[in-house]
Specification:
The chain has 15 helices and 12 strands. The structure holds nicotinamide-adenine-dinucleotide.
Length: about 350
């Protein structure tokens, strides 16, 4: 299948191949949709075995960014870039400055950021060549570490889920299983603990576990026991695809609300399965939008205060999604996609109204 055959279906606007032999740069930039604003999405660096894998990844991820930005209420479209290669072997100033020049050539239609395999340092190299980069370190005037903001969005999502499914405004005494207590998981545990929730946690890193056990009186479990825990909420904050054929029958929770990307192994099948079991699923790209909101504040202004205010809105956004799903008898994943598509259509239509200046 050729790229045009694929983007005919996915609706991408533009796919750019970037090549600079001396620095070893081989990158693909995919711009999915710019109706709401410039396409923003991170730059992933990975030693893809085949070029087709890189294309598949960049097309899938850029489309996801369109939905994420639209539901978060941001004036941003969806895009992504991938650099083919092992960051430990070929990342260099020249490579990322070359990418920066390609990004600059897109005239602001694509804005890049850090992602898996890239770092704030790489973003500073890109910034030498273009202003169209966010997620630069705080000491250079950037928004800094997104994890506390992402965690706060997840916390608001937990509250929205608990309100919808358990009818409670307070998290006092609510039991939450947090899988993965890294950057986001740790900050989430902190907010949950301060709100009076009881924590069950798991991580493959024993130091990370010890920290939350000590600081937040969490109960540590191992492996699959995190899915079997008698809790109200399961918060996946480690890897993707942890909600699957094997784990769903183990779950005792009534709400899933976590930070991980691509939580459902099969979005259609597993969102329907959760619905059948009366487990309320908070669509991942809605609840974990805090990271995107954090970097958006570098473009929109207003700094951390603006980012935190927009992140608070995740409560209302998810509550609407839950209500629409219930009313329309569709999954929460389908309700979220509908919300994104409606906003793009509504705002896109407005652009037909003549407005001078
Ligand atoms: P992180 O690497 O800091 O933390 C992940 C933690 O999960 C680590 O402590 C790791 O040891 C643990 N882990 C790995 N495999 C595990 C397993 N099998 N079982 C239990 N624990 C395991 O990452 P992070 O920045 O906290 O992000 C967490 C998740 O949220 C990721 O899926 C990420 O893509 C997603 N996310 C993060 C942000 C952000 O702002 N950092 C934004 C959006 C989405």
């Amino acid at each position: 299948m050729g790229v045009f055959d694929i983007i005919d279906v996915t609706g991408h606007e533009k796919v750019v191949y970037c090549h600079d032999k001396p620095s070893g740069l081989k990158a693909i930039i995919a711009i999915h949709n710019t109706v709401l604003g410039p396409a923003l999405g991170g730059c992933r660096m990975y030693p893809y075995a085949k070029e087709e894998d890189a294309i598949e990844d960049v097309l899938r991820l850029s489309r996801g960014m369109t939905y994420k930005a639209a539901v978060a209420g941001l004036n941003l479209g969806g895009g992504k870039s991938v650099v083919i290669g092992d960051p430990k072997k070929i990342a260099s100033e020249a490579l990322f400055r070359a990418l920066g020049r390609f990004i600059n050539g897109l005239g602001g239609r694509y804005i890049t950021a850090e992602d898996v395999g890239t770092s704030p340092k790489f973003m500073t190299w890109i910034r030498e060549e273009t202003d169209n980069v966010v997620g630069i370190p705080a000491y250079l005037g950037g928004s800094g570490d997104p994890s506390p903001v992402t965690a706060h969005g997840v916390f608001m999502g937990v509250k929205a889920g608990v309100k919808k499914r358990l009818g409670k405004d307070s998290l006092q005494g609510i039991k939450v299983a947090v899988e993965g207590v890294g950057n986001v998981g740790y900050n989430l545990c902190k907010e949950l603990y301060e709100a009076g929730a009881n924590l069950v946690v798991s991580d493959i890193n024993t130091d990370a576990i010890q920290r939350v056990v000590k600081e937040f009186s969490a109960t540590a479990v191992q492996g699959e026991d995190i899915y079997k825990a008698e809790v109200d909420v399961y918060a996946p904050c480690a890897l993707g695809a942890t909600v699957n054929d094997k784990t769903i029958p183990m779950l005792k929770c009534s709400v899933i609300a976590g930070a991980a990307n691509n939580q459902l192994k099969d979005e259609i099948k597993h969102s329907a399965e959760l619905e059948k079991r009366k487990i309320l699923y908070s669509p991942d790209y809605v609840i974990n939008a805090g990271g995107l909101i954090n970097v958006y504040s570098e473009i929109a202004g207003g700094g951390a205060e603006h980012a935190w205010a927009l992140t608070n809105d995740i409560y209302d956004t998810l509550s609407t999604i839950f209500d629409v799903a219930e009313k329309e008898k569709i999954t929460t994943a389908a309700a979220a996609a509908r919300m994104a598509e409606k906003r793009i259509a509504d705002v896109g239509r407005l652009k037909g109204i003549y407005s001078e200046g």
